[in-house]
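Lines hold sequence, tokenised fold; shown next:
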Amino acid sequence: MQIDPGGRTSQGITGFLELVALNVVYLVCCIPVVTIGAATSALLEVMMRYSDDERGRPLPDFLPAFKRNFVPATLAMLMLAVPAVALVFVAIFWFSQPTILGTIAGGVSALAAAYAATAFMYAMALVARYRNTVRRTVVNALLLPGAEPLRTFALVLVPVTVVSLLIIFPPLWFLVLTIGFSFGAYGTAFLLRGVFTRQA
């Protein structure tokens, strides 16, 4: 039996292994925490390009995109992700208060945190897709969830579903650590391309 290196099966295995490697590289680049924005925007950039008729090579293109997006992605992350995390803690504080006011304030804080987190994801995609000022990127990211409610709901549903499955079935952590982020970004890329096409 001979295996054709150019065959579809061989190409499929190679592509799968490349996405596994990309997932590992992405996680390593996220370890310093402050680089999460740059790593996420780079991952979205290479996967949006790959999802468009499989143009580009995700793994070789990742580090150049990471370097290129580092400054705008990091600044956008500080402006959106940091407030989102702070709002989560505010929500936890208010929910711990056994009063109606605490429940209302906690709910408002939780919704604000979810909106800021969604805007952060859009900001990373905008950094990946367009060359713009950080201010304009953040403003557009804050407007997009309201302009694209259905696609935004689908965008949020992906990580929520993954987290829920991990809580129910913890062994799935192995899949998340090996292929979860790269495959998730690949699926998300189709949604994001749809959003940008409609808003262009």
